[in-house]
Specification:
By secondary structure, the chain is α/β, with parallel strands linked by helices. It contains 15 helices and 13 strands. Helix 8 links the parallel strand 6 (157-161) and strand 7. Helix 1 (21-27) packs across helix 3 (51-57), helix 4 (74-91) crosses helix 5 (101-114) and helix 5 runs parallel beside helix 7.
Length: 387
């Protein structure tokens, strides 16, 4: 008996738990709506934020969780675990699905203690603890590894990862039984909303390069700015557009003063938060993401669906979206000169940019459409089948 068939017997309650309401709205809204529309009761949990009201406006049930993403206070962390435990005992969900490492650990520990029969976790990338060389990150690695092993083990548990490199890393670290791991590429993109169209010529005829991401150093912002500076010295007419906002809950967040200094220097144009990404993507020539590591970057998939030429780094997550020379260009990580050279190559060869963009759209349709991702996620739910 599959999970999708459960609605014909009785509605099942599913909890989706993430570290921001922004993530739930932008990355898992379609999954929540699909579950609701097939008869399941869905409860969304995250720390409070402005997107909670948007989720409720869609008719979804969202509850604010007393969670501080950056907290290391043992009493605060115990309070969160106790809050989750009481909520799960009261709500009696059939399945808890956690997103990101902290939610996977806390959600699974509380769910096991509350007797929730099924636990699914999706980890998009290894996060700050495993990617940063900061002393704080290094100190946290050992306890986080232990907690992950405890949280991800047991009957009725599955771990969804987004790229083969993370699958290999989790296996190497012994964090989870490989038999419990499922590979699903990202959260998917609505390929009907993100549609292909030729870039519209800019009124000032300048080339437009976009980086759309949270303002984190590990998204490659320093390299993006250095490439802008390099290409300006070459006298190229290029506008470097940066879309996104700081993420104060992340230790790698770029200070606003730094961003404003880049704007004042004339290197970039900062757009802040952009709601209408299809419109923005239709108005640029190239989309870049010089990230240090990803799970599977949604910004690249959205750009691919819009048929834009892509430039990204040859790192886990990014190279799953782009095959060098076929549907985009790959450059070495932390290499601003290579990033600048790739952008210049596309500016000088419009036919290449169009060809790469067309093939990127084909890949997005074939591999990353959200309907496929949602179906595969529900298939994982069916495996743990909380009957």
């Amino acid at each position: 008996r599959g999970f999708s068939a459960m609605s014909s017997v009785a509605p099942h309650k599913i909890v989706l738990f993430a570290n921001t309401d922004w993530y739930l709205y932008n990355f898992r809204r379609s999954l929540a709506l699909a579950l609701r529309d097939t008869g399941h009761a869905v409860v969304l949990l995250s720390p409070p934020g402005e997107y909670g009201a948007r989720l409720r406006a869609l008719g979804l049930r969202w509850e604010p969780a007393p969670m501080d993403r950056r907290s290391l206070n043992p009493m605060g962390e115990l309070r969160l675990l106790w809050w989750l435990l009481r909520l799960f005992r009261r709500e009696r969900p059939a399945l808890v699905h956690g997103f990101t490492i902290k939610c996977a650990v806390y959600g699974s520990l509380a769910a096991r203690a509350a007797g929730v029969p099924a636990r699914v976790n999706a980890v998009a990338g290894m996060g700050y603890v495993f990617t940063s060389d900061d002393l704080k990150a290094r100190l946290l690695r050992t306890p986080v590894r232990l907690l992950l092993r405890l949280a991800l083990s047991g009957k009725g548990s599955r771990l969804i990862l987004q790229n083969p490199d993370d699958v290999a890393l989790f296996a190497k670290e012994g964090l989870v039984d490989p038999a419990q791991v499922r590979l699903i590429p990202g959260s998917g993109v609505d390929c009907f909303r993100f549609t292909a169209s030729p870039p519209q010529p800019a009124p000032d005829a300048r080339y437009r390069v976009l980086l759309a991401a949270r303002l984190l150093w590990d998204k490659g912002l320093a390299e993006f700015v250095a490439a802008a500076r390099e290409l300006r010295t070459q006298g190229r007419g290029i506008r470097f557009l940066l879309a996104g906002t700081p993420d104060p809950g992340n230790p790698a967040s770029v200070p606003l003063a730094e961003v404003r200094a880049w704007v004042d220097e004339g290197l970039i144009e900062w757009l802040g938060h952009v709601d209408d990404m299809p419109a923005l993507l239709s108005a640029v020539d190239v989309v870049v993401l010089p990230s240090y590591r990803e799970g599977l970057p949604k910004t690249l998939i959205e750009a691919a669906a819009c048929g834009r030429a892509l430039v990204t780094t040859d790192v886990p997550g990014c190279r799953e979206v782009v095959t060098h020379g076929e549907d985009g260009l790959l450059v070495p990580v932390r290499d601003a000169a290579a990033l600048a050279a790739a952008i210049a190559r596309l500016q000088d060869d419009p036919a290449l940019a169009l060809s790469l963009g067309a093939r990127a759209r084909e890949k997005a349709l074939a591999e990353f459409d959200e309907r496929s991702v949602i179906a595969r996620t529900q298939a994982v739910y069916a495996e743990v089948n909380p009957q």
